[in-house]
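Two proteins, back to back. First:
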Amino acid sequence: MFEAHHHARMLADATRLTAFHDAMAEVIADDDRVLDAGTGTGILAAMASQLTAGTVVAVEYLEDTASFAKQALRASNLDRVEVVQGNAVQVDIGTPPDVVVSETIGSLGPEENIVGLTHALRQRHPGIRAFIPSRLRVLAEPVVSPEADALRASVIGAYTREQPGGMSFATVLPQAEHALGSQIITARLTDATSAGPARPLVEYDLGTTPEADFSRTLSFGDSPANAVHLYFEAPLSPSVTLSSHRTAAFTHWGHSYVVRPPRASAVTIGYRNADRRFTCRWDGAPASD
């Protein structure tokens, strides 16, 4: 089903649209054939069609979304954009593309399979000159965040107040603390301050890196950080980089973070493409029955 609310948020994200437009203007040549993989509403394909005399092919996996894009592009007299419904790696798009544009970027980067998608497209079309974005980095920054303190106080407060029926969660509070620290929260971290340098978790060379899976352990020792801000950087072109860092222009991706449990000094952050999810586990996590 066409997710009108989700796509409306992306259409309202001027930072996202401006970054992709400026990057495409820098990368796409006059006669380039462009593939927009995962086109959604077709907005990036529409912008690409204004930058090249070549054909623009917009591929969308979801049938209802592809139909929406096709109707909108036709009504806008953007007849040079060809909408194809199906898997971008498998469908017949005719002449191979010169440039691939793909905004299949998840909240932290790889969750929408941009790594596997671009690698598979390179394997099928080895003559691709450029990918937009060209790389994808995921980083972690220790921060001191009033938002994280307020969230922790709210959650732990629910477990420490008197409960109906004589129920008490006092003995399992450590489990609750670590469970909270394993959950990636999306909010605004504009009031957070840095508690140390950002550290890279993984970097993907899109089109070349075959798999998105990774695992890395970070140690914070006696850092005052009460949270770890997780964010991506996506170089779209030599001069344009899109970022979900807390100090960058706010986008529909929001700001992601994990709460640091009391006395925890190290966290292992990983990603499994099979699950399409990130995992966070702090040291000293209590065993659960």
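And the second protein:
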Amino acid sequence: MAEKTKPIPSVWARGQREADQPALSRAAIVREAIAMLDADGIEALSMRKLAARLNAGATSLYRHVATKDELMELAVDEVCAEVHVPAAGPDWRADVTAAASSFRATALRHPWLSSVLGQAGLAYLGPNLMAYSERLAALFTAVGFPEPSRAIDTVFSYVIGMSTTEAAWLTTVARTGETEAAFIARLMPAAQQAAAGHEHLQDAYGEAAARLVAAEPDAAASPAGAPASPAGAPDSPQAIRDAKFAYGMEVVLDGLALRLPR
């Protein structure tokens, strides 16, 4: 007897089931899951806790989402609808930077996103991610890259890497209950002590301590990834993160520019 073919482990490879409760739907489940992920992270999300938040039994959830892995596929696809990719214009570097910055802002609003992209099964088959990928392909093709998919991979390997590190840092800060500036000010003496004896690191931390200014409370509470306000000062923590991201983007784009036909 031929071995039974195993089902493809992805929510996008099977049909959606009908709701057994009028108030319970896949969309409602995903919205609540995202709220839990944003508030408490991946470790805090479970099907049992999610069912309790929805006032539903776990069995009801499993009619719509078979596993937590499927739930993560759906959550990733849902938040990727927030990413904006502009149509190709006269300045390709500005367009690519806008697409990259939009992804970064989305990843910082949802700090779990970047870290699970490579683990979320076949999330790229979702409708929002498909549409996002199509817009990126159209942009990079219009720019004239001979291998647009490789150019896209290059840019977004940088963006995802930076966003993962930045989101992890901001999550650490959020758990302290302090502003980013206050946490850095409290952490800096320990960082300088740890760097003692390491010439280049000691200089870098000393310079950072000298330049750092206290961020204003309303600026510290503004959405991560948003442009710093004039009152935030050039050396506010958010402005430093923005400048670091922008520098790396310029370097990546400088390299990609060499691949364009002359």
